Each structure stands twice: as structure tokens, then as C-alpha cells.
Amino acid sequence: MASEAKPAGEAAKPRTHEFLSICKSLVAGGVAGGVSRSAVAPLERLKILLQVQNSQNIKYNGTSQGLKYIWKTEGFRGLFKGNGTNCARIVPNSAVKFFSYEQALKGILWFYQQQPGNEEAQLTPILRLGAGACAGIIAMSATYPMDMVRGRLTVQTEASPRQYRGIYHALSTVFREEGPRALYKGWLPSVIGVIPYVGLNFALYESLKDWLIRSKPFGMGQDSELSVTTRLACGAAAGTVGQTVAYPLDVIRRRMQMVGWKDAAPVVAGEGKSIMEYSGMVDAFRKTVHHEGFGALYKGLVPNSVKVVPSIAIAFVSYEMVKDILGVEVRISH
């Protein structure tokens, strides 16, 4: 006897549920990105200023001095300059990144299990690393123009001859005066850097949590759940390793983004000087090391480390907490 067809309303319910689940996951990722980045906005701005300032015109020479100098010369608002643009970029970036990670992880695990002998395979750090790398590339590429203009908005000061008035003005000005390709300056080192950075963040965070739950050192994870403090520590460890490995590429990316900016702030070009031109990523590495030494590839690492530890930790934990509040599966990997 032929089975009865399901009513159209019942058939639509799974699709509606799946759509809502996707929306909730994207919202959770966006909230996590906005909260984590706003919490460390002053350190984010100082990091970029340290990365791009001219070696002959040093104004920022450390975390404490740099923050005090910004406060003295630009006030409280100066500490958060560029954060609106940053959040406008990081919210969709974070939403896409977390969602892409979950989908990539499912796809990679399914493909791996299709291979003979791997039918019962479980998630491994390598599979998580691959999924994290895919998620990072997708999210970075989708929002890169926002990151490019955010760097310029963050660097400009009251002394900048040209003032970008906001995100749209910066995007349209760069597009009009420097061409569409300028919006993707520094994209290659960004993509190369995001592979170990995001990949290691996800892989280490999830692997550390799984290890703590399985081994239960010091009585952790007795109920197959870790405390917020422990998860924050896992996120901090993952973020520290990831950003240290990828940091030189982040410095080169920032410097390449400034090329072509004729009215840059003096802190970038130096008084009466122009920004150094780079023909590509390799040339940027070569000139940076040649003129400023190998240590220049780690300019701003200290404030970035202070920033990354809470930022990555807050992002992961916020994501899981928001998903829990919205009634979505809490664990990032299934």
C-alpha cells in the first residue's frame, strides 16, 4: 500500500527549523565577534599604529606609553577610533567564520568517513585545523574590503591631511581614487596568515576542551561540561598560539594596505615623507626586514597578545553562551 504524502505544512517544518537554526548560529557568531572586539578596541588600535608607524618618527613605543599618548592627544574617543568600522566588519566576519567552521567540519568529516576503513572515524585536531582554515579563508575574503578601510580609519589622526568620514566614504574614496583592486591590498598575506591563525584557534580550542573532558585533570569536566573560566583559558591558549604564528603576515598586510594612501597620517609616513611602496608580499617582507630588522615583523605583538588572550577567549565563550540562550546546540563541533 502506498504511503500517504505528508502535508505541505509538515514538509515545510524541517526547512523552517533548519533556516532558524542557521539564523541563530549566524546571530551567535556576530554577537560573539562584536562583544569580543569592542572589549579590546583600544589595544586593537594601538597594535595597528605600532605596526605601520614610520621607524624614523616613533610616537608609540610600548603598550602603556602608547595608550597614554592616545588618551593625552585624542582623548577617550581616540581609544575607540575605528571600532565602529571594526565591528561593522567583525560582526559579519565572525558570523560567517563560526557558521562556515561548523559546515566545513561536517563536510570534511563526512568526506573522511567515506574513505575505506574510516567509516567510524571521529574528529581529530587535523580535521578541525582544516575546517578552521576553510572558515578563515571564506570569512576573510567576504569582508576584506571592510578590513582594508578599517585599517586606514584606525590609523588616521587629527593631523591626517585627508580625513575619511566613515566606512562608506572610505570605501568609495579608495575605489574611486585607487581602483577596485586597492580594496584587496594585502589580501594574499591575509589569507596565508588566516590559515594557521583561525585554523589553530578552532583546532586548539576544541581539542583542549575535549582533552580536559576526557582526562578530567584536577576534577575538571565531571559532568561533561567545562566551567566558563576553563573555557576562557582554552580560548586564551588557542588565541595566543595562533596569533604568534601568524603575526608577521598581519604586519605585512597592514603595511600593504597603506600603500597608495597619499594623505596618510605623519605617524605612518613620517613628517614630509611618503609611505614605502611594495610590489607584493615578498617585496614587503624583504624591505621591512632590510630597513628595520627582523623584529619589525613583530611590531605591536605585546598589545596584540594582551588583546588576543581575552578577545579570542570571549569570542568562543560568547558564541557558545548565545547559542545556548537561543536554544541551539552549544558545542561548536558535533
TrEMBL record:
Primary location recorded for the protein, binned into one broad class: mitochondrion
**Each Solcar repeat, start to end:** 20-107, 123-211, 226-325
Membrane topology, from the record:
Multi-pass membrane protein
Q: Which PROSITE patterns match?
A: SOLCAR
Q: Name any Gene Ontology BP term.
A: transmembrane transport
A Pfam family cross-referenced in the UniProt record is Mito_carr
Family named by the database record: Belongs to the mitochondrial carrier (TC 2.A.29) family.
Q: Which protein is depicted? A: Mitochondrial carrier protein
